[in-house]
């Protein structure tokens, strides 16, 4: 494919409400994980471009109208953006399929329709938010409590669920009255630049949103920029530690949504088929490249073989192949390097003594190129094994036996991560008791976590801190100001 046949070519950056030439000659070539051929090329921001974007956001916040408009005006602007987004859902899904290898059916449903619906839900939350309230004081006078925008937000988004994660960062910031510099991952700049087109058409004031695709070294400059008031980051735990350290130097507020190794606990009365279905739908649409995927399946030891067979059957039935085919259920991994690393984990699991039930390192049947890994299930996994402890970020499931419910909870909690998890049982009350004992930020009973926009999402431990979605996600973009007023003194 030559440059004139590329699906998407953009030689400008969206900075300060305008399409601007980059300061240097860097370009990002986007390669299809399915064909291993280029599908697009975009300009890459360099350090001076980041400075320009932050300066534009700073002016828009310090001097522009956006933070000073009423919440209803900002809500109206977000609803205009949502309407435009809805008109371009097919184009957005096709870009995500091309750049990431997400199956088109999954791209339409989860990568595009979900963030589109989130826009409306978040606008509804903002409409009922207590932007200013009066609280009785303890000393005979009331206190006014105001929620005011935190300032310039740097939104740094990974490649795996780019539009969903962009919406959960950018839209609450806009509703709060903040200005935003969005930095998409180099693997997924195409959808971000289409969103920039929609922002421009929605008529947001100049500088309120800038979109600057960049490599990771330039991203570090954005994170450490003294003109940024908050960093909202989603990515690996290792990168999150670096982001937190950089923010600490400037006392920049930061929220981190990081990795996960979520457990699905099957109690002794659970249905293996239901558990297998939940595991399948929790992450296989993106070939296991989902931070809250259920990758540890904790099962009663006496039924371990039954559960391993059920999970293996569910994953083996997945139709793997061309992501542009509407019948495809799982596509490739995002890059050759990710394919290599996942294969290394699979080989390591075999060396450590885990039993391979299905999958492995060979390409799926009928696939001759592309960065594919077959859905893989291990059984006989000890909780201390690497495949049970590290985030593989691929279609690899570890079935881990336990003796009793207390041990199941101990194994679930014996993890560096704490993002999500689930419990499966015929007794919902019993499931809720287990949910209360597992230390995670989110949890599902008889399902994977539902990502309800009304509820905050985020993790604990090495899965990060801070919350997105719900009123709490909006509050993450707001500062609290308390105002006390001296009682009026009657004239003498």
From TrEMBL:
The keyword Oxidoreductase applies. The active site is at 257. Keywords: Oxidoreductase. Pfam families: Aldedh. Residues 19-483 form the Aldehyde dehydrogenase domain. InterPro entries: Ald_DH/histidinol_DH, Ald_DH_C, Ald_DH_CS_GLU, Ald_DH_N, Aldehyde_DH_dom. The keyword Protein transport does not apply. PROSITE patterns: ALDEHYDE_DEHYDR_GLU. Belongs to the aldehyde dehydrogenase family. This is Aldehyde dehydrogenase. It comes from Actinomadura fibrosa.
């Amino acid at each position: 494919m030559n440059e004139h046949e590329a699906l998407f070519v953009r030689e400008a950056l969206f900075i300060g409400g305008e399409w601007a030439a980059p300061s240097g000659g860097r370009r990002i070539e986007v390669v299809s994980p399915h064909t291993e051929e280029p599908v697009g090329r975009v300009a890459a921001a360099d350090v001076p471009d980041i400075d320009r974007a932050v300066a534009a956001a700073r002016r828009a916040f310090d001097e522009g109208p956006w933070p000073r408009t009423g919440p209803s005006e900002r809500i109206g602007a977000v609803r205009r953006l949502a309407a435009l987004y809805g008109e371009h859902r097919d184009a957005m899904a096709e870009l995500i399929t091309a750049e990431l290898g997400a199956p088109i059916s999954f791209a339409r449903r989860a990568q595009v329709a979900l963030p589109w619906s989130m826009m409306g839900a978040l606008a509804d939350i903002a409409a009922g938010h207590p932007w200013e309230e009066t609280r009785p004081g303890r000393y005979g006078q009331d206190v006014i409590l105001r929620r005011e925008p935190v300032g310039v937000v740097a939104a740094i988004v990974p490649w795996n669920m780019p539009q969903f994660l962009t919406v959960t960062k950018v839209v609450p910031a806009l509703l709060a009255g903040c200005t935003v510099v969005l930095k998409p991952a180099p693997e997924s700049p195409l959808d971000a630049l289409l969103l920039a087109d929609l922002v421009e058409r929605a008529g947001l004031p100049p500088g309120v949103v800038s979109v600057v695709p960049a490599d990771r070294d330039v991203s570090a400059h954005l994170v450490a920029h003294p003109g940024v008031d908050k960093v909202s980051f989603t990515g690996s735990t290792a990168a999150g530690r670096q982001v937190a350290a950089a923010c600490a130097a400037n006392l920049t507020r930061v929220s981190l949504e990081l990795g996960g190794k979520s457990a699905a606990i099957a109690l002794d009365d659970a249905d293996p088929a239901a558990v297998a279905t939940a595991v399948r739908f929790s992450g296989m649409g993106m070939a296991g490249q989902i931070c809250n995927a259920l990758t540890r399946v904790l099962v009663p030891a006496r039924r371990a073989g039954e559960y391993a067979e059920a999970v293996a059957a569910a994953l083996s039935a997945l139709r793997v192949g061309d992501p542009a085919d509407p019948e495809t259920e799982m596509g490739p991994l995002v890059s050759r390097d990710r394919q290599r690393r996942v294969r290394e984990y699979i080989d390591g699991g075999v060396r450590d003594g885990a039993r391979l039930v299905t999958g492995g390192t060979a390409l799926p049947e009928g696939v001759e190129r592309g960065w594919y890994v077959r859905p893989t299930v291990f059984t006989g996994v000890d909780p201390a094994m690497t495949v049970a402890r590290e985030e593989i970020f691929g279609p690899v499931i570890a079935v881990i036996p336990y003796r009793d419910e207390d041990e199941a909870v101990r194994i679930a909690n014996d993890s560096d991560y704490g993002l999500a998890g689930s419990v499966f049982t015929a007794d919902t009350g019993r499931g809720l008791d287990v949910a209360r004992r597992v230390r995670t930020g989110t949890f599902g009973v008889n399902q994977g976590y539902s990502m309800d926009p009304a509820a905050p999402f985020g993790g604990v431990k090495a899965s990060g801190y801070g919350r997105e979605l719900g009123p709490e996600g909006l509050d993450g973009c707001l500062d609290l100001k308390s105002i006390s007023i001296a009682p009026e003194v009657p004239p003498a």
